[in-house]
Amino acid sequence: MSVRSQQVESVLRRTIGYVLQHQLADPRVRGMVSVTRVDVGKNLRQAVVFVSVLPANYESRTLQGLRSAAGRIRKLAAGAITIRAIPHLDFRLDGSLKKQAAVFDAIAEGMAREEQE
Hints:
Blueprint: H1 3-22, E1 32-40, E2 46-54, H2 59-68, H3 70-80, E3 88-93, H4 96-116
């Protein structure tokens, strides 16, 4: 991965996160939405934006809202950063945080059982 791609990913992650928290007023986007990662294609024209949504029961509707508002989010991000062209945004759910939380819960549960014995 090139340094340029890493820079674009970092800037997009911060900017899209800000736009989602402060500038987007879509009623379908509910709960706490966090941008966990952005993967930009080699030609910098496509970006996959991974998001985490809490609570889990808002995930599908929020993802639907983000995909519908992708053009608006892209336009708002373009006003906040200065790169030649903002990539097209594809929003996807990031399940890695939930897997990490499940592992930590299992570890804590195992430690609690061990202390009781």
